[in-house]
């Protein structure tokens, strides 16, 4: 099941430094939303607050609300580990567990959540997750080989399989193609298109063609200068952001005049 995200008045701090200020955004279920903007404007920082991943850094904290279908992820008594199982994340560099087999990589998140699972259920889940990540046909004959033996693009799809194996509601992707060649990038983009039929997908990308190709909505973030907080400047349908932006800064950025 896929859920929506509503963010209200979110500020993100690293210690005393206000990195992102005053974000309000409503992200639809079963859609792809792209975050774009120049380096340092806080895209990754903001993305990580959507599943409380920033909390692994000491001193990183938020003010404001992030609601998953109306439930505040920062409410008292909410366990960040549970949040991260509902809202998965795929990183810039593919990070499969290198010595673990392909099969065990897919099951790693499920085991982390202390779920007991029979061999036949595990086999079915491995096939379903790898198929969902468009990787099954390439690896089905070598499931017991280490994940590190795959190509970069295959490793990234393995990470996506690992993320979807825990049945998340949302998948966050932080520049998932930046370490990949163009063919592998297209494979991931095709996969994102398929994933949105079941999940809410949010992707940070520096590649504007990619944002235009894969996303339904685009959020443009910007920063007024070094040491200033990043802000959400404009959020709209992707076609509007690229063809008819309301803000001059958005237009300058998407037309390549800065950033
Ligand atoms: N761990 C950290 N500790 C302190 N400040 C940080 C940390 N991570 C990021 N920042 C700062 O927060 C601001 C936003 O950084 P962030 O990485 O989120 O931007 P970004 O838009 O994702 O950039 P890029 O496109 O280059 O990846 C920057 O000023 C950055 O220096």
From TrEMBL:
Residues 5-248 form the ABC transporter domain. The keyword Nucleotidyltransferase does not apply. GO terms for biological process: phosphate ion transmembrane transport. GO terms for molecular function: ATP binding; ATP hydrolysis activity; phosphate transmembrane transporter activity. The keyword Transferase does not apply. SUPFAM superfamilies: P-loop containing nucleoside triphosphate hydrolases. Coiled coil: none annotated. GO terms for cellular component: membrane. It holds the Pfam family ABC_tran. InterPro entries: AAA+_ATPase (IPR003593), ABC_transporter-like_ATP-bd (IPR003439), ABC_transporter-like_CS (IPR017871), P-loop_NTPase (IPR027417), PstB-like (IPR005670). Keywords: ATP-binding, Nucleotide-binding, Translocase, Transport. This is Phosphate transporter ATP-binding protein.
């Amino acid at each position: 099941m896929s859920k929506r995200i509503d963010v209200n008045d979110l500020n993100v701090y690293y210690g005393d430094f206000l990195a992102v200020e005053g974000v309000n955004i409503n992200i639809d279920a079963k859609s792809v939303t792209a975050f774009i903007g120049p380096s340092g404007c806080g895209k990754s920082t903001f993305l990580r607050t959507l599943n409380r991943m920033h909390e692994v850094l000491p001193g990183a904290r938020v003010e404001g609300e992030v609601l998953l279908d109306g439930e505040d992820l920062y409410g008292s008594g909410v366990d960040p580990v549970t949040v991260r199982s509902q809202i998965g994340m795929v990183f810039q560099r593919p990070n499969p567990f290198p010595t673990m087999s392909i099969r065990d990589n897919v099951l790693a998140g499920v085991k982390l959540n202390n779920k007991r699972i029979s061999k036949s259920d595990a086999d079915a889940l491995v096939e379903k997750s790898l198929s969902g990540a468009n990787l099954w046909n390439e690896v089905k004959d070598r499931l017991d080989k280490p994940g590190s033996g795959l190509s970069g693009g295959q490793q990234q799809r393995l990470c996506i399989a690992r993320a979807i194996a825990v049945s998340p509601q949302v998948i966050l992707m932080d520049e998932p193609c930046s370490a990949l060649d163009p063919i592998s990038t297209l494979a991931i983009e095709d996969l994102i298109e398929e994933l949105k039929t079941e999940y809410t997908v949010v992707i940070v990308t520096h590649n504007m063609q990619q944002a235009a190709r894969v996303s339904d909505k685009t959020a443009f973030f910007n920063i007024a200068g070094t040491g200033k907080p990043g802000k959400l400047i404009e959020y709209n349908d992707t076609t509007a952001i690229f063809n008819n932006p309301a803000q001059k800064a958005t237009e300058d950025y998407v037309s390549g005049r800065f950033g």
